[in-house]
Backbone:
């Protein structure tokens, strides 16, 4: 087939990360095409995550913190997270770093236009972009369409609005960020604020909810105003930037490999962690996994392990939150009160040992989590049985 080896649909976090990992790994003979609607301008989002040591995009990290505050409804803890560092990357810096690198890769082509559709061919894929027809051996699709509800799965939305504020007096400690602050009315949902101080007088303050419905902009603004004045005691500030977004939180299955030559990546490929919404590091892991698979076998199809205990635990935590059996305020603050911070962060980053996971499981509301765990297991067994039955019937 003529054309490209790899067509990446979407030049956002996952599309650009994949192109970056492939080209950095020395795969300079592969002809790579990245399709994106339009060149990125400015800073559209902020990515936070924690890691130990330097990551692939270290040069784009805008701020770093070694200490995090966790405020429950009536308790506060300052967490020393060493050897982790909590990092913040502004998307504008990430795009600039990756663009600069890809410009130096003659095997990478950028195409700006609207992806319309694709068609599987015997040995690849045909793709339509603004009426132009392109062909490739593999397509990596990062264009996310909200998942259909699947029997037994849980769904929440993580939605948020944040302000970069500037104050006249010193109000922030640039050495400590606020991971979660639940000193805000919960209204039967999970509502918290996080604060990322950029200097003594400047911070990104983000009002975040896990719930099934979005709010009106004015309601997010009211939450931010209330937090700044009532909790932080800041009367006078200027809003310099606004950031807003929604991340799906679901344990519904994402089709990783929807047709023979197509792989879904990023949010579309199930990278948003169901129980927390953290996605950026999972995107990097997926890009590394695809890259090493290509290096090993020449093709990108990788099989995730059939039973992933983190996936099961995510389902249990998500179901506890989505059913309102325990609110996020109580769940997350208890988790941090009863465990060393590293144990929780390693678990949430999926870098923990079985012994740490067991200790963590013993620290939660055991009857509630055992009952919910049984429910999740029974729903997923029913789902698997239904699918096997359908497949057998289809085969006749
Ligand atoms: C405001 C915001 C803040 C976030 N903060 C964090 C965080 O702190 N930590 C974290 O871990 N995760 C965070 N996330 C979640 C996640 O990391 C991001 O959503 C991330 O950008 C997902 O990467 P992606 O490649 O899947 O999607 P995107 O980055 O959205 O990329 C998809 C790309 O496809 C393009 N596209 C869509 N349709 C078409 C089309 N028809 N034709 C051509 N191109 C098209 C879009 O323009 C976009 O560039 C955040 C999400 C948002 C929205």
Residues:
């Amino acid at each position: 087939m003529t054309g490209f080896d790899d067509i990446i649909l979407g030049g956002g976090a996952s599309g650009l990360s994949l192109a970056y990992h492939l080209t950095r790994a020395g795969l300079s003979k592969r002809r790579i095409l990245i399709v994106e609607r339009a060149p990125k301008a400015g800073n559209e989002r902020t990515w936070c995550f924690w890691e130990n040591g330097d990551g692939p995009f270290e040069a784009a990290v805008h701020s770093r913190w070694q200490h995090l505050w966790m405020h429950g409804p009536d308790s506060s803890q300052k967490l020393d997270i060493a050897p982790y560092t909590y990092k913040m990357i502004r998307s504008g810096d990430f795009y600039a770093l990756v663009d600069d690198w890809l410009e130096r890769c003659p095997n990478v082509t950028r195409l700006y236009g609207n992806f319309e559709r694709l068609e599987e061919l015997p040995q690849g894929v045909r793709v339509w972009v603004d009426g132009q027809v392109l062909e490739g051996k593999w397509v990596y699709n990062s264009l996310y369409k909200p998942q259909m509800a699947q029997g037994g799965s849980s769904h929440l939305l993580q939605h948020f609005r944040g302000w970069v504020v500037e104050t006249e007096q010193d109000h922030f400690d640039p050495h400590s960020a606020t991971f979660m602050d639940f000193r805000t009315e919960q209204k039967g949902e999970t509502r918290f604020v996080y604060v990322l101080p950029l200097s003594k007088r400047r911070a990104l303050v983000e009002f975040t909810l896990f719930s099934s419905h979005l709010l009106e902009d004015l309601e997010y603004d009211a939450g931010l105003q209330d937090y700044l004045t009532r909790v932080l005691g800041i009367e006078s500030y200027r809003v310099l930037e606004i950031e807003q977004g929604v991340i799906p939180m679901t344990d519904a299955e994402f089709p990783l490999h929807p047709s023979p030559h197509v792989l879904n990546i990023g949010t579309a490929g199930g990278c948003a962690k169901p129980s927390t919404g953290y996605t950026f590091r999972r995107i990097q892991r997926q890009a590394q996994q695809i890259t090493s698979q290509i290096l090993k076998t020449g093709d990108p199809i990788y099989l995730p392990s059939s039973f992933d205990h983190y996936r099961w635990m995510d389902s249990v935590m998500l179901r506890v939150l989505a059913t309102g059996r325990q609110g996020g305020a109580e769940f997350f603050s208890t988790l941090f009160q009863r465990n060393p911070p590293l144990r929780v962060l390693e678990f949430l980053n999926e870098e923990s040992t079985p012994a740490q996971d067991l200790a963590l499981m013993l620290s939660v509301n055991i009857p509630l989590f055992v009952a919910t765990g049984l429910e999740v297991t029974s729903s997923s067994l029913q789902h698997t049985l239904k699918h096997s039955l359908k497949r057998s019937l289809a085969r006749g």
Summary: Residues 4-61+88-146+250-297 form a domain with the FAD/NAD(P)-binding domain fold (CATH 3.50.50.60).
